[in-house]
Amino acid sequence: MTSGAAGQALDVAVFGAGRIGRIHAANLARQPGVRLKYVIDVNREAAQALAAQHGAQVAGIDDAFGDASIGATVICSSTDTHSELIMRSAAAGKHIFCEKPVDLAIGRARECADAVARAGVVAMIGFQRRYDPTFAALKQRLDAGEIGTPEMLVVTSRDPGAPPVEYIKHSGGIFKDMLIHDFDIFRWILDDEADTVHATGSCLSDPAIAEAGDIDATAVTIRTKRGRLCQINTARRAAYGYDQRFEVLGSAGMLQAGNMRPTEVVAWSKTSVAQDVPEAFFLERYRAAYASEMAHFHEAVTQGKPVRTTVADGLKALELAEAAALSWREGRVVKVGA
Amino acid sequence: MTSGAAGQALDVAVFGAGRIGRIHAANLARQPGVRLKYVIDVNREAAQALAAQHGAQVAGIDDAFGDASIGATVICSSTDTHSELIMRSAAAGKHIFCEKPVDLAIGRARECADAVARAGVVAMIGFQRRYDPTFAALKQRLDAGEIGTPEMLVVTSRDPGAPPVEYIKHSGGIFKDMLIHDFDIFRWILDDEADTVHATGSCLSDPAIAEAGDIDATAVTIRTKRGRLCQINTARRAAYGYDQRFEVLGSAGMLQAGNMRPTEVVAWSKTSVAQDVPEAFFLERYRAAYASEMAHFHEAVTQGKPVRTTVADGLKALELAEAAALSWREGRVVKVGA
Amino acid sequence: MTSGAAGQALDVAVFGAGRIGRIHAANLARQPGVRLKYVIDVNREAAQALAAQHGAQVAGIDDAFGDASIGATVICSSTDTHSELIMRSAAAGKHIFCEKPVDLAIGRARECADAVARAGVVAMIGFQRRYDPTFAALKQRLDAGEIGTPEMLVVTSRDPGAPPVEYIKHSGGIFKDMLIHDFDIFRWILDDEADTVHATGSCLSDPAIAEAGDIDATAVTIRTKRGRLCQINTARRAAYGYDQRFEVLGSAGMLQAGNMRPTEVVAWSKTSVAQDVPEAFFLERYRAAYASEMAHFHEAVTQGKPVRTTVADGLKALELAEAAALSWREGRVVKVGA
Amino acid sequence: MTSGAAGQALDVAVFGAGRIGRIHAANLARQPGVRLKYVIDVNREAAQALAAQHGAQVAGIDDAFGDASIGATVICSSTDTHSELIMRSAAAGKHIFCEKPVDLAIGRARECADAVARAGVVAMIGFQRRYDPTFAALKQRLDAGEIGTPEMLVVTSRDPGAPPVEYIKHSGGIFKDMLIHDFDIFRWILDDEADTVHATGSCLSDPAIAEAGDIDATAVTIRTKRGRLCQINTARRAAYGYDQRFEVLGSAGMLQAGNMRPTEVVAWSKTSVAQDVPEAFFLERYRAAYASEMAHFHEAVTQGKPVRTTVADGLKALELAEAAALSWREGRVVKVGA
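YS: structure for the whole thing
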């Protein structure tokens, strides 16, 4: 299927009817001409609920790929299914939206990148942060030269709490699971590639995470090929909630992207002047980003606009995650791409 | 028509296909079971555009009232049509959502209040600010006793620019057109009624407004029956945009409701540390409020929940607007309800 | 004594060794060439403590006025002594710094203004807020045209708690005791004079204040001769501390003067993102203002620079306080100067 | 000389009459009983100016050490003189306040630490940041357990512009010259010692700095013996001024220390809502810290209170600076104390 005019009919199959699948489905269904035709999930109940909401059918994987009318797939199933569904979508000439990561194995992710390139389909990775209004406005002002040449990036990225250890065991580790987004932010904001990576970390919130071979707090430093510096600090647990900030120091000033709050109430008491804590977690914090992301995917598919978060971007972020994990494990600076 | 279960079918007629009509229509159409059946507007093109968007029909006033299947009317037409459409809706037993003001004439507004009371229909006035997340959260915390007894309210309410003088001539004056919202905020937040009102003002932005017999900046003070104090300052033109703030001083602290910004970017330059100006105007600032308001109307109609912004509230705000206008014209303190 | 060169010797007598007397004495003593020679206070212990700190002598009133070497008097004694000390200072040709108010009786204050004018001495009233770095910077930017023509002023002025009722009984009432500063801010910032004043108020914190014939919360509105608007809200008790803010709306923007905080610590907890409450009270909030004020007095005396807060300013503020008190008592709008 | 009672006489010799020497001299002279007796500087004009201001004499080094009445030395001369003056002060039994660093050579700094320990004199290093009201309040709240166990520290430390290259050539490099303060903050806030250090950096503002063998932007990561993480980002040039912030993530929340602004004016224009840029540079930013620091030194000397910033602290910070410089030069992680 080739890209066409806005508002043209687009039939879609959604893989994965979990939390993020439901959000993507709703955002995509809102685009003109889009019809959710199939919902595929091993959890039949979840699939039925989502299908019912959008007048879609619950289906199997083969149904979706066997139906030539399906123009695009939305892949929100578990990580270990991503690459296969990407490969099959590409083979069937269907446009692809896939949640991060492409795959936990870089080799497999490269095969996906090659496959979608050969197939000539639109393929977009769900790095939703690039579509966040605050982050996108900052990037636009940076590109417009407001602070001169960017020189340093400091990223703060903290979750409100660690996921269950069972999840962590299959997550690919904190660098691939959590920092993958921060590595993408780094590449996007500094518009540069890593030369060296240093990562260290600790397990501070729950010993079970250490027992699972992982850490829950990291400190990463990247020096780029052009000599720019980036520091990323992350934690699985910030008691005050979801903390998503970054700041770029440029030769002529600084741009900061702050957290969003649910309300703008300020409370003055005997002891403090207090505002709301940040939006609770990614579903709230990135609500507008998810909507904008899916509108962008729709535009790419129907109007042929270039995709802003490609499989190649997914691959690059994954390479950084691997380099960081290696740096952490071996306690040394890692040269990227060497 | 009586109220029923959530999700039950509700056919709706929308009067007025202008800016605010389109917003209310979209927000109502999103509720489960709601169908926009008729769009009525003297501007046929606007009516057709809105109808097309929601699969509704363009119709005449009599079509709407003659169709027994219509359960509710949404009145967003020009102010001089409000009271007649309310009266006819009440007579036809249809639930009513009506934009503010009920009518520019208090007597006529009272007739409307009586009519909806007699008819027993749900009747809701579009004081959307009460549904704003920030304002609603503040009210909830106030009611929970967070700052003790409320004692003083300071309201800042400024538009980004004056409307055309032609509009102002038919607006009923700044107190009925613009401060009507602030008078409602006053009653809602302090949970009290005015004892005396003092208002003064000036025409500072455009002499044509003075020639039309109106002013563009006001300073209003209300003392309540319980001795609480309220000051409202308004301006038709704030160069920096739409400014919607208030603060409540209580015996144990203060709660402030601040503006919302489009993004959380902070720019550090040689000369300043700068944030975004506030959301541009009411459509942006109260986007969430409009959505929440229509969900509330839908709940009231389908689940029988009491309406929070009644025709009586509209009447009270109108009385305050009249008292303020009188105070301004005669340069004296006005006793309310005397 | 005539004004002379910076650094020249200036011998000073300080009347009143209380809290504010000690601050003024220390700030003045810091100026080059200044010597505190006499401290006069009915409280001999306080006088001795202050005198000891600065190598001064405890003296009686006549000692100070009889000593021709005394170039300036600093009057920080109780309000009922101000006018006499001003008159005697003027008669003796001594420069005068006097705390507000000049006198509680306007007639007496006028006599003071006349006397200092005839004597040709430097006479400065302690409206320290004009010397506050934040307020002064705002005024300078306003005068430089940053927000165009000023149109509206909103002043928030709240104390952390009411003084003892005994104090209130002799204070001249809230308008002369507390709002006198706000009336001066109004004249200074808008650079305009009042045409009409409306004031209302309540006693909300302590019934004993009402029994003493006073109120503890006020809402004042001033319309200026040029049609500009000013609203002042005050309270004797703000549970969160000393609240000193104002904002000026101009034709091209707005300037706000905010509170100062003891530290810039921000605490992120499970429930809020919290900053410090404002500086505790006037001694902390206006520390820099007091220092700058006395440096200004010294400059005026030794270099002949014009005084920025004159007895005439004190008189004008007093007239506004009287007009406001009249408006409050009679429940009507008062024409100023009529 | 042994420590004694508050207010007792203390004669002082000040070495170095430059910018910081003048500040320390003025702050120390303000303490009760303190007399500046000698000012020593190779720049005779500067020495004379400072001496005149405090009624001191210009003297030579030997004069100061030969005068048994001198109880304390304040060492603000160039870095290469610090260690010798410390050694001579210790030998002469005089208490010592010395600006950072102790010496650029660790061996020499160790000799100083040993010498003051043997001599039993009070010896304090000028890490003024610990005395900053914001930083000190944060530390106190941290120690009180407000955010549980500290886990991560992020330090932002940026100057408004690079010093002359001539200065840089003799500065010992950015890690010893600029980050020495940040290394002290790290040890103080996390109350822990470094296990490993990684540092990287670039020369981004001026190639002449690179030619001098130095860099102007760094990114340092420290992992502590207890597994806590610290990231420090620095730059010689922040176009918006002097930027001194840090934040501590703890198990139960976060504490941030923000910049201070000259005023609390907020300007609302068509394009932004803007506050002041931070205080210009260290003299303004740390004005209160310098005053508090010298009061602390005076207390230590006269009341025998333990010094909070010891020569040992200076030594530890220097070791971190050396480790960081090694890490940067060799592109590897450095084990501290190994």
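YS: worth flagging: The longest strand of chain D covers residues 150-158.
IM: good catch. Also The mean pLDDT of chain D is 96.
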